Amino acid sequence: MYNYRIRWTNGNDREFEMFHAITENFYNQLVGGPQNRQSFVAGNQSKDVKYAMIVYSKEDVPVACSGLKEHGNGDVEIKRVWVQPLFRGQHIATFMIRQLENFAHEHGYRRTVLMTRERMGYAIKLYEGLGYKRIENYPPYQHMDDAVCYAKDLSAIPAHG
């Protein structure tokens, strides 16, 4: 990760909104069109992402994003983990998840939660490999057949000081 830099922002950031549009298109294609995601879209607005991370290449090109959305009861939801196709296979997603976990822990959150889909086996493998445990689907995903939710307790993360 020495050749990458991170910029923290929020969901209203222009570059994060660009990535959000890319991911919306990807998810629409994944499920056969936006009509198959109507119940999902309301809970996945860019503006609701409180903390957004943009990862830049050594050439200062935005190559990846992710974010955190407050979820309540000490939980924060990981959103929009995305790496541009040309930069995949370099462990950027793993790096981002660890950065998100540390950031969340430092900001007092007790647990990270996230949702992915059964058909995204690579994402499931990533999350499970990073210690995420499958949980019951939480709102607004509780009635989505293809949705799978995960959580990770952040109490084991060492405090920085």
Summarize the structure.
With 161 residues, this protein is of the alpha+beta class.
Task: Please give a structural write-up.
The protein has a single domain, classed as Gcn5-related N-acetyltransferase (GNAT) (Aminopeptidase). Helix content is 28%, strand content 30%. The protein is built from four helices and seven strands. A seven-stranded mixed sheet has the order 1-2-3-4-5-7-6, sandwiched between helices. Strand 3 and strand 4 form a beta hairpin.
Keywords:
seven-stranded mixed beta sheet, 161 residues, alpha+beta
The total number of structural domains is: 1
SS field, number of helical segments: 4
CATH architecture annotation: 3-Layer(aba) Sandwich
Shape descriptor reads globular
Oligomer: single chain
Q: Total strand count, please?
A: 7
Q: Mind telling me the C-alpha Rg?
A: 15 Å
For the largest sheet, list the strands in their spatial order: 1-2-3-4-5-7-6
Strand content: 25-35%
Q: Structural class of the helix and strand makeup?
A: alpha+beta
Helix content: 25-40%
Measured distance between first and last alpha carbons? 22 Å
* CATH fold assignment: Aminopeptidase
Most strands sheet: 7 strands, mixed
Task: Return residue spans where pLDDT drops below 50 for at least 5 consecutive residues.
Answer: none
Under CATH at level 1, the class stands as: Alpha Beta
